[in-house]
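Input (structure):
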């Protein structure tokens, strides 16, 4: 066998190993030979080998999401490691986020630190593609989880410097989260593509495979609400501390930021807080180890950038890519749905727990309501995304959007009081959890389907940045306005969200028709 040096065309062939001009029969023979020995990825192919039994036509045609051979990853090992890392890390992060308004209520320091976190994500999203070119996606994920550990420990800082330390670490965390969302999306897309390659699945199956893996991932990520909140409740309730709570009979959407002035919380004892945040720090360490030893490096970042390109050139290119993504019609069509869903999710995490649960039945029920959210979203994420191949994504998007709007309307119209039964306060988070379990993974999967491989880092970074900007806007409004202002803003965004999603599906349908007619 005579081997030649790899050419540019050979790298374009990448994983699939055949030229565009080859016939389907030749393609089938080559793929069949490679399946027998998956380690063969030579730069040239011998086309005169004895023919193998032909594969089905749909298993060789139209495999657009080709990766270079080093980008093949073990799908199940990688997704399990990624899910475990997020489960442990976000068990701590979500629990801390739910407790911030209670353990750091002075001058809204807890809520403001969260606002700084999500505001800084914009900067992290802009720098994410550049950092991926410089250090790689695995190092971005690993660094972000290390900063999560530092953020957890910053909550134990002395009271004299806690506001400055907490807000500083929250800002650094936000910058890292911007890159984390991008790298997470690239990893799950790579896992899905590798699974399709190893199983010899056609490109038409890629969406359902991505939806399946996103369902597994979001089940673990949303399920982190369960152990984190149970852990915080168990540890904090073991201590005795005074808490005076004034229950207003007028609870609900018209409870405003001034409501905080009617609550007087005593910060839990230091030893209890050290135990709590020590447990959270242990969760962070497990997440770091899962990433360090569980997921492989990705060689593919952006092969359009030359190896001799300077750092300044990389910065300019990626800033241009992010700016181009923000004005990309495909991104603009999806953005309102991302924003409206994010506003309602944050309104539930901060506004609902304060204006409904704490106001009417007491802060001790906040953890249970978040557990209901975690159970519903994690179970729905698995079931809905496993069944997307049968139901189709349009049906699931319609169900998810309808439930999300219903959640906002219930919070707008319901005014509970001290006579309300506690079980009623579990219904709204449970309903919202079903909507989140459908919409969040499906939206990420839609992005992976709509944008080309070269656009994915910028697309995931931009979507994550816009989503966190919506989080920050909700948190700022929570410190200055009433809950119903936030809910009305979410419903206003849902009108262009529905229209934008309909446009996206119509454009994808027309592209599929055009592609079928051209074959």
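Output (sequence):
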């Amino acid at each position: 066998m005579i081997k030649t040096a790899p050419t540019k065309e050979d790298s374009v062939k990448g994983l699939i190993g055949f030229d565009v001009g080859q016939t389907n029969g030749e393609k089938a023979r080559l793929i069949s030979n490679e399946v027998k020995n998956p380690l063969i990825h030579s730069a040239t192919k011998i086309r005169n080998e004895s023919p193998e039994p032909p594969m089905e036509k749909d298993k060789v045609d139209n495999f657009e999401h080709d990766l270079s051979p080093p980008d093949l990853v073990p799908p199940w090992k990688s997704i399990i490691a990624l899910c475990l890392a997020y489960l442990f890390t976000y068990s701590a992060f979500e629990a801390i986020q739910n407790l911030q308004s209670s353990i750091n209520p002075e001058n809204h320091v807890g809520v403001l630190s969260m606002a700084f976190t999500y505001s800084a994500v914009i900067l992290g999203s802009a720098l994410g593609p550049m950092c991926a070119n410089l250090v790689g996606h695995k190092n971005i994920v690993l660094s972000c989880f290390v900063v999560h550990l530092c953020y957890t420990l910053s909550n134990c800082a002395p009271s004299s410097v806690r506001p400055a330390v907490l807000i500083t670490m929250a800002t650094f965390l936000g910058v890292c989260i911007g890159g984390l969302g991008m790298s997470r999306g690239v990893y799950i897309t790579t896992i899905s593509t590798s699974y399709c390659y190893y199983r010899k699945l056609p490109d038409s199956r890629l969406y359902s495979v991505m939806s399946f893996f996103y369902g597994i991932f979001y089940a673990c990520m949303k399920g982190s609400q369960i152990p984190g909140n149970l852990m915080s409740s168990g540890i904090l309730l073991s201590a005795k501390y005074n808490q005076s709570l004034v229950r207003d009979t007028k609870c609900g959407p018209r409870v405003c930021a001034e409501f905080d002035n009617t609550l007087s919380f005593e910060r839990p004892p230091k030893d209890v807080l050290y135990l709590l945040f020590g447990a959270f720090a242990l969760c962070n360490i497990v997440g770091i180890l899962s990433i360090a030893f569980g997921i492989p490096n990705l060689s593919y970042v952006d092969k359009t950038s030359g190896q001799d390109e300077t750092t300044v050139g990389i910065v300019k290119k990626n800033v241009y890519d992010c700016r181009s993504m923000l004005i990309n019609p495909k991104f603009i069509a999806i953005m309102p749905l991302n924003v409206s869903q994010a506003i309602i999710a944050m309104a539930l995490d901060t506004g609902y727990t304060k204006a409904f649960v704490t106001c009417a039945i007491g802060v001790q029920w906040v953890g249970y309501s978040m557990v209901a959210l975690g159970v519903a979203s994690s179970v729905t994420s698995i079931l809905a995304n496993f069944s997307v191949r049968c139901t189709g994504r349009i049906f699931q998007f319609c169900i998810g959007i309808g439930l999300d709007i219903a959640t906002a309307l219930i919070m707008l119209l319901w005014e509970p009081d001290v006579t309300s039964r506690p079980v009623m306060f579990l219904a709204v988070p449970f309903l919202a959890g079903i909507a989140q379990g459908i919409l969040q993974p499906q939206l990420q999967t839609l992005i992976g389907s709509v944008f080309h491989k070269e656009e994915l880092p910028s697309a995931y970074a931009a979507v994550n940045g816009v989503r966190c900007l919506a989080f920050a806007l909700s948190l700022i409004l929570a410190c200055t306005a009433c809950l119903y202002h936030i809910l009305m803003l979410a419903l206003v965004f849902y009108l262009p969200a529905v229209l934008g999603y309909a446009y996206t599906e119509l454009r994808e349908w027309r592209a599929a028709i055009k592609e079928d007619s051209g074959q």
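Notes: Residues 154 and 166 are 6 Å apart (CA to CA). Residues 8-59 form one domain.
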